[in-house]
Amino acid sequence: MTRILLTGASGFIASHILEKLLARGYSVRFTVRSEDKAQKLLAAHSSHASQLDYVLVPDIVVPGAFDAAVQSDPPFDGILHTASPFHFNVTDPQKQLMEPAIQGTVGILQAAQKYAPSVKRIVITSSFAAIFDAAQGSYPGKTYTEADWNPITWETGLENPLNGYRASKKLAEKAAWEFVEREKPGFDIATINPPMVFGPPKPYISSLESLNTSNERTLNFIRGKCKQGLPHSGVFLWTDVREVAEAHILAFEKPDAANKRFLISSNEYFSNQMIVDIIAKCFPEYADQFPEVREPNDGLPEEGCYKVDNSRSREILGMSYRPLEECVRDLVVALKEMGL
Description:
NAD(P)-bd_dom_sf; Ketoreductase; 340 residues; 37% helix; globular; oxidoreductase; alpha/beta; NAD(P)_dehydrat-like
């Protein structure tokens, strides 16, 4: 039985990864920060109890945080590293975003190199934020690929939480590639770089009050918090959480994924206007919660917008992508199940 270590398993993306790994028959050790989260995951997957164990890692910044987690008998074949902060309610981008992302990523690589010689591949959750150059705005005519890197610097990352997040993803991923080049470990790596991630959360690990940042906007729309006008949409690129989860597993399974970045993104744009249009169509009971005045051009940049090339994900991983309407509909159904 193939054995995997999954870090940060209570996260939005990782909870989907865990479910898919168990369905595929993997043996999984997961890490979470608290006993409460561990017990929720074990209870949700009680039918797979023989495939599951866990280790608590309260703080991924502490030196040696993952040392115990990577030591296993039977040993691990691979590691899926998703643990990294993604929220903007921070006062210190360096301490709350940048250092945890970088030190957590380097820490898992160091631990595997030292204590888990059986590991052949580590798949790391990065982000389109490590690729996207926000300073260029809508960048008409640009097609982003895995060859692109966000030029943001450490100093710029200190300026505000949004810059801190973008810097954390870029610098953590750079640190991983530099580690592999410098240390020549016995494993290779692959990174998963999605833009906005939408879709249904797992109710056993999430709540309406603790939604992931990407889905929180949809909840706010439905609750009428944006009746006076929709906020800026962000990057206009998105993917479904179930596809991001699938991509992590495929990047471990596919030999040709070694030492590659994967831009996991639908070719279909999204905007906040498009999201509320879908909700109004599929759930008309919420239509009066939305602004009466429509965003021009369906909320997309009138001057045109960058594109994304997801061909590597299709050709090497075999990815396909859901339409936005299916993703938003499934998200709202999940929110209703959670008590909306």
